[in-house]
## 1
Amino acid sequence: PKYTLVDQDTCIACGACGAAAPDLFDYDEEGIAYNMIDHNTGTVSIPEELEEDLEDAYEGCPTSSIKVNQQAFEIRSS
Ligand code: F3S
């Protein structure tokens, strides 16, 4: 399984991830991306049919803000 979250400290709101993976990434009112499946906690595995979109988003992010892991991310305090 794959898990993902956006590092919102480095996201520059470029919008590429939502274009690559519209069912995975959405933006807050400032245009900062988040994983809409699990409120950007990286704790819910993404559906298999979205893994390819995730790969595209991961590779396309200019600031490498999209983090991908094979297991759930640790809960972060931010
Ligand atoms: Fe931000 Fe990267 Fe998406 S900069 S808007 S996480 S493609």
Note: The radius of gyration is 11 Å.
## 2
Amino acid sequence: SSKIVSRETESAGLKPEFSHTGPVYLNVENHDELNEQIRMIDLNEEDVRLLRTLKPIVEEHIDEIVSGFYSSVLGVEKLEQIIIKHSSVERLKMTLRQHIVEIFDGNIDQNYITKRLTIAKIHKKVGLEPKWYLSAFQNLQNEFIEIIYKEAATDQERIHRVQTITKLLNLEQQLVLE
Ligand code: HEM
């Protein structure tokens, strides 16, 4: 399997931790530089676990997240044209919906990497420039933070949640823009 249980867990002599969604994966074979990137942004297993606990909240609000995203994208004439030419809003909404929910599975493995590289290729092919991808991403991030923030009980919890989400979204951008 391409899924490797993290070095942190192994070196601590611990058994990989299993939750209802499976073990935590946060180390990728043959991607030393990516593992370094992950360490550099301090994305750790605790983040992955927290991410999974946030999944139901995100799923609950997925319609507004996806609609907000596309109304902002369709507000830019150039981007609307790309969508009309290469796809459809309905199709992209479905794709994005699935993609977002999957981020909160927190499985950072070979499959995760391959998918991001494919997204990058597709965006390149349809002529989506990085500046627009990043703008769209910020819009998505704004929505996430608002939803997650509202439902947290304490300031500490809010900070932690926001940090975890921004780490994940940052990694996502690192991979798609590479
Ligand atoms: C395809 C995600 C921004 C246009 C895709 C796919 C994903 C995705 C997951 C499908 C890849 C596959 O089929 O394997 C994202 C994310 C974005 C983003 C996470 C930013 C947060 C944009 C923007 C546009 C766009 C701003 C505006 C033009 C497209 C198009 C396709 C595509 C035209 C091809 C879809 C098709 O084959 O029907 N994107 N995207 N994307 N994206 Fe994006």
Note: Residues 1-23 have pLDDT under 50 and may be disordered.
